[in-house]
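Worked example

This section walks through a single chain of length 359. The input is the sequence exactly as stored; nothing has been trimmed or padded.
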Amino acid sequence: MTIGSWSVGSSAIDSPLYAEKIWNGADGKFETWIGGTRVKWNTYTMTHTKWTQSGNSPGDGWAGGSRLHSAAGIKAFVGWTANDDLRVLNKLAEQIKGHSFDMAINMAESAKTYGLVLSNLRSLGGSLVDLKRGNIAGAFRRLGVPKRRQRPLKAKDVSGRWLEMQYGWRPLVDQAYEAGKALESLTKHRVLRFSASSSRTGPDWDFSTSPGFYHSWMKPTVRVKYLAELSEDITIARSLGLTNPLAVAWEIVPYSFVVDWFLPVGSYLSAWGVIPALKGRFLTITKATLKGHRFDPLGPQPPFRPQTGYGLKETHLALSRVSSTSLSVPRPTFKKVPQALSPAHIYNAVALVHQLLGK
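Given that input, the structure is written out below as tokens.
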């Protein structure tokens, strides 16, 4: 077990230049594995604070406030939730599968896909026949353009085409591409080591404990990375989604995609169908940072800070590596309204309302 700490500067208050580091982790670079050795993945945690003077007055440092911040604390400042973990786990699952094609869901929705393609082929084919016969007006009507001097184009016409594009043609094209990737993944040589990561940056926070005397504006950032080294490849059936009936059932529920805007049930079921069945070793790496500066505002100065014009750059780093033989899938949480109602979701919601209420 490796445990240690060090610091530079007499204290965070007395020295304008200050650094502090604390760590705790397991020893060993290699471990026995199937008659040989491999690099060992050790569990490890570390917190590190570094202050550097950037102003024009050397004097003493600052009082108040916590110097070391944990990864969990910085995650809270960023707003990192279980939904973010689900996003990374699904990226890892896609890396392991080599594609995002789901045969089971495509089979369940084959009737809708068939109807969409057939109706549009009929409209396009009929319009070509009308054009060949010189019936231009008839050709345009088959394509959804109203006859001149008849009813004007309605919002329902536009919203219907928009929804058809968003939830019909775009997924169909994407799945055709992913089906090709699935075929390639199932036929090529597989290297059973994968990784996926994601990061989020939160708004600036003022960590000052005495805002009347000084400000401490910091920007939090969190990056989570998963490493997976499998001892057994994922099965073809699981790779194609054939062992995940709950995900199929959820996809065919009417308007389930609207629920996913606010509570990512589909994302949870997708990860649940792959992640718990993986066999191997895993390393979860969380890197959380706070970067910013402190400075004296105009106005009265505290007793320990009689001079003005002093600034301080600082960085807090919290690093965590967790080694395990399995990964768990966290339950989804409700998204905040600004996250749920993104511009794309708002456009789709307006189109749905037009389709349901429009005439």
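What to look for: The longest helix spans residues 155-187.
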